Amino acid sequence: MPVYDFRCSNCQHRFAIFLTYAEYDRHQTVCPKCGSNQIQRVIRKVRVTRGDEGRLASLADNANLDSLDSDPRALGRMMREMKNEVGADDLPAEFDEVVSRLEKGQSPEDIERDMPDLGDDLPDL
Questions:
Q1: Do residues 107 and 72 make contact, with C-beta atoms less than 8 angstroms apart?
Q2: Burial class of residue 75 in the structure, from the number of CB atoms within 10 Å of its CB (0-12 exposed, 13-18 middle, 19+ buried)
Q3: How do the pLDDT tens digits run along the chain, 125 residues long?
């Protein structure tokens, strides 16, 4: 059964009512706090959740990937989104520095030149 949210225009009280679709058209909603019939329907925000694979797949869209070679800002945005999506809080501090520089438009080559020790603490593959 759907839940409908309302707010009383008289006393500002917010409340929810469980109604079937058929009941919604006929129901005379009144405020349970003050009894007023001056009620406004409140539409809640909708939140859609996706699994990790779905979130990462949306980031790997070809339209996003094509611009990475030529647009450091796009690369920086994608790297920040990926960090946020996977919750990678254990990345080295340099990661945020590199992303910030990319988002400002600095090329990866310039960043490597400015930060020559970047990646020295990473394990050899």
A1: yes
A2: buried
A3: 588 899 999 999 999 999 888 888 888 999 999 999 999 998 876 655 556 566 556 656 666 566 666 788 888 888 888 777 666 667 777 888 888 999 999 888 888 888 888 766 655 54
Residue 59 CA to residue 63 CA, distance in Å, equals 9
Could you tell me if 109 and 116 are in contact, meaning their C-beta atoms sit under 8 angstroms apart? no
Asked if the structure places residue 120 within a domain, the reply is no
- Alpha-carbon span 35 to 42, nearest angstrom: 18
Residue with tokens 């030149």: 113
Contacts 24+ apart (CB under 8 A), 106-112: 106/72, 107/72, 108/72, 108/75
Q: Are residues 61 and 26 in the same domain?
A: no
Domain that holds residue 97: 52-114
Answer yes or no: is 96 within a domain.
yes
